[in-house]
Amino acid sequence: MSQHVSLTRFLIEEERADHINADLRLLIEVVARACKTISVAVGKGALGGILGDAGTGNIQGEAQKKLDVIANEVLLEANAWGGHLAACASEEMDDPYPIPDAFPRGNFLLLFDPLDGSSNIDVNVSIGTIFSVLKCPGDVQCVDTQAFLQPGSSQVAAGYCVYGPATTLILTVGHGTHQFTLDREQGSFVLTQRDMRIPEETQEFAINMSNKRHWEAPMQAYIDDLLIGKEGPRGKNFNMRWIASMVADVHRILTRGGVFIYPWDKKDPNKPGKLRLMYEANPMSFLVEQAGGASTNGRSRIMDIPPTELHQRVPVFLGSKKEVEAVTDYHRKADQA
Ligand SMILES: O=P(O)(O)OC[C@H]1O[C@](O)(COP(=O)(O)O)[C@@H](O)[C@@H]1O
Ligand SMILES: [Mg+2]
Ligand SMILES: [Mg+2]
C-alpha cells in the first residue's frame, strides 16, 4: 500500500477525530478540486489565453486580470454544485452570491480571494487562491452580507493554494497547519508536511519598501532599526524579501519564518490598509496562529476584529511571534507617548 496520505484520507481522519463534520470535509474537497482546475489553467500560461487584462474592474476599483475572473468562476461553479454552502463571497464580487434555490444547499459560508498576487500573473511569478470557511449564524438570514460579518476567530477552516514551481495547498481546521503538494501525474493532493511550525525568532522581513515615506512614524522607526542591523538596537542583521503575492510571501514564512507586513499608509487616507480582512488577513492569520506564529493589525490581534464590511481592509503584521510582538510594541509605545 502507498505510504502517501492523500488529502481525502487526511480529511476522513480529521472527521473521525471529530475535528470536522462530513459536510465540511466535502466542502474542502470541492475547494481543493477547484484549485486543481485553476492550477492547470495557470500552468498553460500564454498558451491557455489566460494572461492580460479582463477589461473590467472589481468593487475595490482594481482592474481585473483575465485570471482573476476565470478563477472566480471556477470556484463559484464548483461550489454552487457542492451542496455544502449557503453562500459565497469573493474579492471579485460586490455582494455575496447565495446558492440558487435549484441547487443543493448547506450550512457553511465560503469566502475567497480567487487569485492572489494579480500583478504577478503576467510575469510568471507564484500566485495563489486564499479561502476562509464560516458557519451560518443562527439568527440572521444566511445569504446576506450580515451573515458573513463574523470575526476571524469564528473560522472553521482556512487555507491557500500556491501555484508556483509546485502547487501546494496549506490547510487548517483549527488543529495545526498542514501542507499538501499536488501530484500532477495522479491528480491528487498528498500530505507533505503535518504541523508546520513558524520559528519564533527571525532575521527576515517582507514589506513593500517603496511606500516608506507614506507610513506612520513607528513603522518607519521599526524598519530604520532593522536596517541598522547588528550595530542598532535590534543587535542583528536582517534580510529582506518581497514577492508581492501574499500567498507566496506567507508560504515562505510558514516554511522558514519571517515577518510579513502591509501597514497602513497615507497614500489614500480613507483606506485602512491594502489587504482585505475577510478573505486575505483572517484566513492567513488562522493558518499562521495554528503554526505557532502571531498576527496583528499593528495594535491588536486580527482575528478579534469585529468586521463591519465584506470588503473591509486592514493593516497586516504576521509571522514569527517575537518579531510580530516587536513591531506591535513600536506602535503601542508610540500610541502611549
Ligand atoms: O503591489 P504591492 O503594493 O507590492 O502589493 C502586493 C500585495 O497585493 C496583493 O497582490 C493583493 O492581492 P490581490 O492580487 O488579490 O489584489 C497581495 O497578494 C500582495 O501582498
Ligand atoms: Mg489578494
Ligand atoms: Mg485577488
What would the keywords be for this entry?
337 residues, alpha+beta, Fructose-1,6-Bisphosphatase, Chain A, domain 1, D-Maltodextrin-Binding Protein, domain 2, 2 domains, five-stranded mixed beta sheet, 8 helices, binds 1,6-di-O-phosphono-beta-D-fructofuranose, binds magnesium ion, fructose 1,6-bisphosphate 1-phosphatase activity, magnesium, hydrolase, FBPase_C_dom
Structural account:
The chain has helices at 7-16, 22-44, 66-80, 145-148, 217-228, 246-256, 277-290, 321-336, and strands at 53-57, 63-65, 85-90, 97-98, 108-116, 127-135, 157-163, 167-172, 177-183, 188-193, 204-206, 239-240, 259-262, 275-276, 294-296, 313-314, 316-319. It is α+β, with helices and mostly antiparallel strands and 337 residues long. The chain has two domains: 7-193, Fructose-1,6-Bisphosphatase, subunit A, domain 1 (Fructose-1,6-Bisphosphatase, Chain A, domain 1, 2-Layer Sandwich), CATH 3.30.540; 204-336, D-Maltodextrin-Binding Protein, domain 2, CATH 3.40.190. The chain starts with 6 loop residues before the first helix and ends with a helix. It contains eight helices and 17 strands. The protein has an eight-stranded mixed β-sheet, sandwiched between helices. The chain has a five-stranded mixed β-sheet with strand order 12-11-13-17-15, with helices on both faces. β11 (204-206), α5 (217-228) and β12 form a beta-alpha-beta unit. The site of one magnesium ion (MG) has 4 residues, from β5.
Name the helix and strand elements from N-terminus to C-terminus, one letter apiece.
HHEEHEEEEHEEEEEHEHEEHEEEH
CATH topology of the largest domain: Fructose-1,6-Bisphosphatase, Chain A, domain 1
Total E-strand runs = 17
Radius of gyration: 20 Å
Class of the largest domain in CATH?
Alpha Beta
Per CATH, the superfamily of the largest domain is Fructose-1,6-Bisphosphatase, subunit A, domain 1
CATH A-level architecture of the largest domain: 2-Layer Sandwich
Number of helices: 8
Shape: globular
The CA-CA distance between the termini, in Å, is: 63 Å
What structural category arises from helix and sheet content? alpha+beta
Provide the list of bound ligands, each named once: 1,6-di-O-phosphono-beta-D-fructofuranose, magnesium ion
Residue fraction in strands: 15-25%
Q: In which order are the strands of the major sheet placed?
A: 4-3-5-6-7-8-9-10
Mean pLDDT: 94
Keywords: Carbohydrate metabolism, Cytoplasm, Hydrolase, Magnesium, Metal-binding
Binding site for substrate: 116-119, 208, 274
Subunit structure: Homotetramer.
Domain Fructose-1-6-bisphosphatase class 1 C-terminal: 198-331
